[in-house]
Specification:
With 247 residues, this protein is of the alpha/beta class. It contains 11 helices and 8 strands. The chain has a single domain, classed as Alpha-Beta Barrel (TIM Barrel), CATH 3.20.20.70. Helix 7 crosses helix 8. The chain binds 1,3-dihydroxyacetonephosphate. 1,3-dihydroxyacetonephosphate (13P) binds next to strand 8.
């Protein structure tokens, strides 16, 4: 059985005060056991070190983005800096990075390679737009994105896939359990054919897009949904309810 994985992507949100409050909510959730489920939160760069220091040790901290190397990259943070403060996770290829910062499949894949080579676990995101879904291109788009990652991944133990349909992100329009399960099953089948049986069986595939405390339970019942990557609801105590769906 695959260990459930729950990511909280805080995106560009938070103040010192709100971040402290959120860490307290997580630290106080005594009935959530980080040895039974993987819990990983991704604060902004400016809050990373603070959260890494103050968060309970059975939960983990992730970067939202990074560049491959240190040097003349104004405004960026490098993978070695993430390692240096003791982080083990990084989100890669989020649809907001793709749409707002023009990250291509190749850029995202290179980041996965760099993260995994550095010993981090990459939370590698994929997902179709509404237009692509309406044109029946969901499978084509998500497997193209997955292929780009697969081309560079050697150690699949260091990769979690996050399927986040763009039309469901921040819209309140959650995919139905059937819609999400169908894509997850197709992705796993693709891994079976194109990577290996073993990888298909062990890689966690998360769903992301308007996950809330009151829809998490039905989604996680689906066979190929191994957890969530949560945006808005990860900024509130509702995240604890989502975590409990995996216990
Ligand atoms: P929402 O949960 O706010 O829809 O965001 C999902 C997401 O983009 C997580 O990475």
């Amino acid at each position: 059985a695959r260990k459930p994985f729950f990511g909280g992507n805080w995106k560009c949100n938070g103040t010192q005060e709100s971040v402290d409050k959120l860490v307290k909510i997580l630290n106080d959730a005594k009935d959530v056991d980080g040895s039974k489920i993987d819990v990983v939160v991704a604060p902004t760069l400016i809050h990373l070190a603070k959260v890494h220091e103050s968060l309970r040790k059975d939960f983990h901290v992730s970067a939202q983005n990074f560049v491959a190397e240190s040097g003349a990259y104004t405004g960026e943070v490098s993978v070695s800096m993430l390692k240096d403060i003791g982080l083990h996770y990084a989100i890669v290829g989020h649809s907001e990075r793709r749409s707002l910062y023009h990250e291509t499949d190749e850029v995202a894949a290179h980041k996965v390679k760099v993260a995994v080579d550095a010993g981090l676990t990459a939370i590698a995101c994929i997902g179709e737009t509404l237009q692509e879904r309406e044109e029946n291109k969901t499978n084509e788009v998500t497997t193209r994105q997955l292929q780009a990652y697969a081309n560079v991944i050697k150690d699949w133990d260091k990769v979690v896939i996050a399927y986040e349909p763009v039309w469901a992100i921040g819209t309140g329009k959650v995919a139905t359990p059937q819609q999400a399960q169908q894509v997850h099953a197709d992705l796993r089948e693709w891994l079976r054919k194109n990577v290996s049986e073993e990888v298909a069986d062990k890689v966690r595939i998360l769903y992301g897009g308007s996950v809330k405390g009151d829809n998490a339970e039905v989604l996680i019942k689906e066979k190929d949904i191994d957890g969530f990557l949560v945006g808005g609801a990860s900024l509130t105590a509702d995240f604890i309810k989502i975590l409990k769906s995996g216990l």
